[in-house]
């Protein structure tokens, strides 16, 4: 049962029933609702900030795990980048220098990276910013690795070519000279034995008995095998790679033009044909058409001590040549 309230009216000096106006009731209701809303907002704020939900805790934990994984991946990618840079540096400065190949430019590697579209599969993890950054870095490293593999394949071919080149470079003495006593005249200015004037001697003179075998000093192809005016019976071998050797004054030639010969193969025998004063072999080495001192091309059949001795013999040989 609702209680009825009364108040004492001083004007009428009587007790009258207390009636609350509608406006006051509405204001009271509005105030209550407002207070409830404010209180609820405060409670929710405090709860959300000081009492995280289980879902938020789980999300925060996952975020920390992702962050740790990202840091680990970032460190690994940096290490890979450093290793890749070292490989590229070694490729340019070591391997390609050894095999006389031009280093790869950074622009060439960059162009290759742009062409590696299939590597974009890694972008499947690009749903978040960190994943996208990792994917971009891995794309770059993977493309560089792929391009480096192509470079190393090219270097393998260079190695194969280098083996052929090493076999082709003149590297032994053209006649047997184990006692190192057959070099009579070296490379340089010499008195010509016939003309009696100083002339440039573009090779080495090896004294030997007529009929002594003469050997090809490197793999190559016979380009000339015939008779010349001053050279007498002579042979020229094109070894490729800019190298050429010439053998003069032979008593007889075994090789024929167009024949492919191996290092150490007999191509003729010592004689004294042409402008020669005694049986000997005049031997020359040319690089890109320019005569060079043959004494620097005996490294395959001499020890270090013997090589040093040969250098001294060639430098202090006879002031006269045999041709």
Describe this structure as you would to a colleague.
With 323 residues, the chain is α+β, with helices and mostly antiparallel strands. The chain has 2 domains: 54-168, no CATH class; 183-315, Glucose Permease (Domain IIA) (Distorted Sandwich), CATH 2.70.70.10. It contains 5 helices and 14 strands. The protein has helices at residues 22-50, 54-98, 106-115, 129-168, 304-315; strands at residues 6-9, 14-17, 183-185, 188-191, 198-201, 204-207, 213-215, 220-228, 232-240, 243-253, 260-261, 266-270, 280-287, 290-292. The strands form 3 sheets. Strands 3, 6, 7, 8, 9, 10, 11, 12, 13 and 14 form a 10-stranded antiparallel beta sheet that branches. It has a two-stranded antiparallel sheet with strand order 1-2. α2 (54-98) packs parallel to α4 and α3 crosses α4 (129-168).
Secondary structure topology:
Blueprint: E1 6-9, E2 14-17, H1 22-50, H2 54-98, H3 106-115, H4 129-168, E3 183-185, E4 188-191, E5 198-201, E6 204-207, E7 213-215, E8 220-228, E9 232-240, E10 243-253, E11 260-261, E12 266-270, E13 280-287, E14 290-292, H5 304-315
Antiparallel strand pairs: 1-2, 3-6, 4-5, 6-13, 7-12, 8-9, 8-11, 9-10, 10-12, 10-13, 13-14
Helix pairs in contact: 2-4, 3-4
